[in-house]
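Deviations from the work plan: none for this task. Representative record:
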Amino acid sequence: MSGFDISRSDFDNITALHLSGFLDAHTVPVFEDAIQSLLKEDIYNIIVNMQKLDYISSAGLGVFMGFIEEIREKGGDIKLSNLSSKVYKVFDLLGFPALFEIYENEDTAKSKFNNS
Amino acid sequence: MSHHLESFKERNLTKIQTEELDRRHIELLALFEISQSLSSSLNLKSILDTILLVPMGRMMISRGLVLLQDEAYEYKIKNIKGLPYSILEKQIHISSYPDHPIFISKTEKSEDWISFLSDYHIELLLPLISKHNQRGFIGYGSKLSKQPYSDEEIEFLSSLSNIAVQSIENAIVFEELNSVNRELDKKIQELNTLFEIGKEFNHIFEQEGILKQLSYSLMGQMLINQFFIALKTDDTLKIVYKKGSLFTTEKLNKCMAFCNQIADILQPVILNENNQYEQLYRMGVRAIIPMNIQNENGGYIFLGDKLDKSEINNNNLDFLTTLGNMTMISIENARLFKETLEKQTLEEELNLAKNIQQRLLPSKMPDIANFDIHGFNLASKQVGGDYFDVIRLNKHTYILTIADVSGKGMPASLLMSNLQAGLKTLSFENNTLAEITLKLNNLIHSNTSIEKYITFFILKINTSNGKIEYVNAGHNPPLLIAADNSCRKLEKGGIILGMMKDVSFETGYDTLSRGECITMFTDGVTEAMDENNTEFGEESVIKYFQNHFRNQSCEQLNYGLLEQLKSFCGDPTKSDDVTILTIKSVDE
């Protein structure tokens, strides 16, 4: 099984997580821990950049679902950016575009946070 | 086409005729253009836009709509222009449909659909007919000029609808194909999810991890982040996992109270306000997914609303059922795995206990001048409740004791070590056997419940003259086999230890003469059973000793008796411990 990795960039009031590799049932705890630690630091404006993500399964999408209620209650959001067409297809099939904002690139996603 | 019409016109016609032909010419050109644009599109919306907007622009019509057949006699409004959006997708029942263009205001029928169209000022209705099949209608409002539609205009619109219907059909097939493809992709996604979670379950061996995996897949695949899972323990449902803020503890308790009253649900149920689970529906539960293992219910997943507010539908149930059952099997496997581990640990601990207990029993018999002595114990499980001991008090005085604790296994062995410890702390110098027995009785009585007791026999022998004194507290009477082959049972004493406080014990007296022997044993010997449930019995023990005690050592006698037990019932330790202690007065 291919690996999965996350790197993090902090901006003024936004943090971007860059995912790479395979996000599936096996690697999902890594992603969950990453978001969990952001919440512990009271960071609720989160961009998930998936430029280098090769694959996502339903379990991976489950992590977004698991946190979104808490994050939005705190006035924050998870915005998604740089989805490859393969990754976007999964989001689209499961109906995510109706629930999450998806942007072509990280800068646009960032500007949406700053406008709101 | 344009070129031919021009030359024809020049050669043949008057001015009026020319004007008429000009008009026809333009109409034909328009139809030609429309048909080109229609047939090049597979997008239903843009096709419907074209067939409404083109005539509306050309004839100054202010409103229009398209009705397409949904099922027999049912039509849906699929496109509107100049009308309120609220009527889009509205279903209309048309039972007797016209097969030619009609004017709504001139229709004499008074059906619902007529008055509906009339309410929205639709004036002209044209059928969309393909291969004699009614596909739908195009409706137009009045012209802004207030002029009635001319025959030529109606002819033009009819031609338009005839051209349009083929494109509409193509677009519908294309849309259906797309939607089938998408459904297929969704199913593949579901299967991938199940496949993935199945793989993952193979190496998770604790319930919490399993439920967490289930939770990810459920949330990602179903867009549900309000749910809880209850598992059955001893026929009562207990919440083991919860996600989301909707289901508060108070609500969960109510749900459980309700669910514990109803019968098992073996098939998934989608809830609504009208079925028997209305109470749960009002608390926010939208579906109950049973988690079955071998057709038996082990618990449920209770699902709340989807985050996108769409409804859980029958298409999702196969996925959810499979997910539920897979989870149940994994949880059961995890439980069995844990049980096996625990059992292994327990067995290791029991083996340790057995070693400790064996060390409480004498490992080696003392050498006593003019006496042969031998004893052994075989525990039925790893640890047993039998006890025997030989204690030297001084050069000529020895204590022999045997005891049997009620029950077997760990509890019996604990009580046995309690007895052993008690016996070791009592002073034989200052206490008679009866006093020692009484003290042990009171110790056991205060340490145990009434159903725990010990049969106990203690004997003191003076090895210089063979005189013995003994107390028998409810133990199988030891046998004194005399020189003349008679047998005396050492029965004097009192009731078993631990039943009552402060009871009195009688002391028995006898003498073990040269060549005679005393054998003590536990009920594992006398109550050993053969396959017909016949007990070995005390008589057999007596006979055995009478036949063999003269010529054999105590060790030979004891093991010989064990051999007899084995040939009688196979393995005598399968139901109880076996302990035998024999002493014989010998010539030196």
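The helical segments of chain A are 28-40, 58-73, 85-93, 106-115.
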